[in-house]
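for the record, two folds in this file. i put them one after another cuz i was lazy. first one right below, seq on top, structure tokens after. the second one comes after a little note so u can tell where it starts
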Amino acid sequence: MRSHRLALVVLALLPPPPLAAQTTLEEAAGRARQLWLAHDVAALVAGSDTVRLQLPGVAYFAALAPGQAARLLDRYLEASREIGLDLQGVRPAGPDQGYAEGRRRYAVEGTSEEREEMVYWEFRLSGGKWRLREVRIVP
């Protein structure tokens, strides 16, 4: 009985299993959409080796580490409130590369004016999982 309780305590202390790998590009795009809406940019770039960013008003960033990319995206999103993000298209560009685009609707905190911009994501299939490689935002 005591060993059974010990086993339960050990299991409770273990980290949760990793999220299941996205088996399709559409699943990866849907997950990216959900994470964007939640402003969970750390999870969005997690597992990527490098991420390229193109943000309005900022020079193009080539090959950032995921932590750097997350900080820049977080800074970009921090003053906004998401209204919606509709996926406009998801398309493969080969067996291990694909793209998704979404129309983002948001308001700057403290205002009610709705704004729109396009968000483009590039994904690469690596190790059986679609990983984010690039984020481009076009007003």
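(here's the note) second protein begins now
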Amino acid sequence: MTQFDTTSWEDASLEELRAAEEKLSQAIARQLEARKREALDQIVRIATEHDLTYEEVIAGVRTTTKRGKAPALYRHPEKPRQTWCGKGEAPDWFKNHPDPEKLRIPDA
């Protein structure tokens, strides 16, 4: 690894520093791209060796999953098709009920 003489930077002009910064940014970008290419080559090699499909590789990498709709915890006392899962702002029919716990769906 090359050592940089940072003491000369104190005497450099702003233009020289910005030019050096640009060259350094480009070198970093090239290094990162090379690492990515190496990693992808390794992934392809391993996937090929183990007969993994694209879907199997992606399933192993995916960090988030789609969440389904949250289950209903409360039901409107007069309109049973209206429910609330207990997340977000409570609907008026829940907030205005004298005993909201009576609206809880059994076993929910």
